[in-house]
Write a structure and sequence with these properties.
Blueprint lengths: L1 E3 L4 E3 L29 E3 L22
Antiparallel strand pairs: 1-2, 1-3
């Protein structure tokens, strides 16, 4: 999968948890956000074969300088 903003992009890989009721956090990298509102897009990278994932949420954390 790919997570994109207007200024940056990062990639991740979906790993099966074995069941739709089981969830796992996956760190996908660092994004650069501009001041104010940002649009964040989560999408498959390349052709989608079957289901990509059930996404429960997207957590953003500030990077410590």
């Amino acid at each position: 999968f790919v997570v994109e903003t207007e200024n940056s992009r990062t990639r991740g890989r979906v790993v099966s948890t074995g069941d739709y009721t089981q969830f796992r956090e996956i760190a996908s990298g660092t994004l650069t956000l501009r001041a104010g509102s940002n649009r964040i897009l989560l999408r498959p990278e390349g052709p989608l074969i079957g289901e990509l994932a059930d996404i429960r949420g997207l957590r953003l954390e500030p990077v410590k300088p």
